[in-house]
Amino acid sequence: MNASDxxxxxxxxxxGLGMIGGSIARGLRKAHKNIExxxxxxDLSSLxxxxxxxxxxxxxxxKELCPEADLVICCLPPLSLIESLKDISQLVKPGTTVTDVxxxxxxxxxxxxxxxxxxxxxxVPGHPIAGSxxxxxxxxxxxxxxxxNVILTPGPEVNGQALSLVNELWRSLGANILGMSVERHDQxxxxxxxxxxxxxxxxxxxxxxxxxxxxIFRYAAGGFADFSRLASSDPKMWSDIFVSNSVATEKVLDDxxxxxxxxxxxxxxxxxxxxxxxxxxxxxxxxxxxxxxxKPIIKDELEKMNVTFEVEPGGKISGKIxxxxxxxxxxxxxxxxxxxxGVTKVSGFLEGEDxxxxxxxxxxxxxxxxxxxxxxxxxFGVGMHGLKAPRKPLYxxxxxxxxxxxxxLLSAQQFDSELSGDESLENRPMNRIAxxxxxxxxxxxxxxxGTPPLKIKGSSLTSIEYKMPxxxxxxxxxxxxxxxxxxxxxxxxxxxxxxxxTERMLAGFSYPVIQNSDTGSSELQxxxxxxxxxxxxxxxxxxxxxxxxxxSISPGSELELSHVGVNPTRIGIINLLKLxxxxxxVCNxxxxxxxxxxxxxxxxxxxRGIEIPEQEIPLAIDEFPVLLVAAACAEGETVVxxxxxxxxKESDRLDAMAVGLKTLGVEVEEYEDGIRIQGGVIGGGEIxxxxxxxxxxxxxxxxxxxxSKIQIRNCANVATSFPGFVDLARNAGIKISSGRD
Length: 741
Ligand code: S3P
Prior knowledge:
With 741 residues, the protein is of the alpha/beta class. The protein contains 27 helices and 32 strands.
């Protein structure tokens, strides 16, 4: 966006100067002293108040003000907005960006489709999730939107500049910008906002009709005041909302009425157990909502919440399953789609915490992303130079991939940034990327141990030829991302083949990369651009690996894993299990968006111990925890050497596996760079996963062959890569349950 496109230089018109419109005016004035803000409203005194305090520069009619505006912000109740849209569309000049704040989106989208043309392409539907039961300009506050969410619901046809301008508007008011489809928005809001308002209005209405209503209100106290607060909301606004979101609200209301009838029956029958259970669940759910969603998330508190898996011994694996999307490809889809010109649609996206943190980071840098909804995202690329300075440190959670790739990208921006992570990530080595990036001219500060947080000052970079000391796709990708901004050709050479999703995805976005398999190098020219493309993310072979091993080790098992990514740089786990005698069939191999995909059929077979060939290690780097469980179930010994990289993953995986397997009675010898495991009988016991998702899931698989129960502590991070693991594992045949400590 160049200077003339920026909000500062625009003439803004606010239509409807109530609490939301007024708060936008006051907030915008605070953020941009000189911006021109005009307003229309039926209430002259609001306009005069706003003008006298200089929140607006002037007021008038729609007819007078629409033609002069560059950005029109409609802050009207939904039905009033729908009625006015046609007039506004005829009054504004072509290319004017128009947005709204309404709590209902489907009916507005329908009206826009009716109006069509250029106007509807420049209309960016928005909804700030902020406000209170108060209404009118007097209730407006300048920081109403600070740290609050705003949902935008643009379709892929929406004009990119209009979208950027509306993004900038909410950014300057301090809001976090989310994206949803119109339909999802109305369903979600019906449940979370519209239903509670209806109940508040409804309870006051029904009490007022009671004979003793005077007494009811005289003696009512805090409980009634809390519950009925929402009934003080603006009646015009809320009647508009229910009329225009009737379908979605009717549905949640039906469910609620059904539930009320059951509760009434429990009261009639004096069924205290039922009531107690319902109230306990509701109580815990609300506490969880307040702690994890409503309050800003406090990292330490989150880390304290712990999950334990309990796995009963035995079982066999069967069925046909699809595991969630590939984590490496999910991260990269957000990064490259954000930097592309145009709109990218992603399907199969992994809705795990790691990839969601990457998504939030790009939203924080001004990228509009709709979704995820059932693994689908629409990403409105901002181009190679379109990212905005993050307003706060970017939290990468548990993800080394996200932190390292973003470090490469952020080193080359025009702004400064900071990357932070959870306790595990804060202990992971970052000099492996900081050193080559510094050679390119990057200004990156780590703490004294070379660990996060990373403080990055935006710099101009020069290209580099870099021989990596370790086979790391993260390091390679960080350098290539930086190289895209450096003058000349950046070339990275790997000592052994490691995953090439970055190169494949760059090619998919039409950014040329030369890969040379003889020299193990990848190179690209800086300064080119990416064009948007659609991405279908395959299921993650690293998640499939748990089930490949589970079915291999449990007699009578037969399982099909569908649509699994089988990129040759990731199939070490299949190669190694086959070497151990596993019965795995790779079927229907096909290419999906540049990545090979297949269905995998696996049956039980007796495994035997092997010496792991060193060149396979980077190709199975994330699968070692579960591979070592396979080794513990195999006949004979399995030896791994040259695998020191396993010590710097989410935990020290050599140590975590050695200690855990020993606890289960397995004979294990640990080396500095590897491990030896003597296959045999597996017992039960209590395991610490050290907060490492893959250690937790590996020991869950071990339960299939254990002689007694295995308890696995510290499993909350399974959600980083494999949301829904427990349910999927249970359905497939692992006797697993999960509880919070
Ligand atoms: C990843 C690369 C691997 C892997 C990690 C994801 C990636 O790390 O362990 O889970 O997406 O590039 P290294 O490249 O550091 O070995």
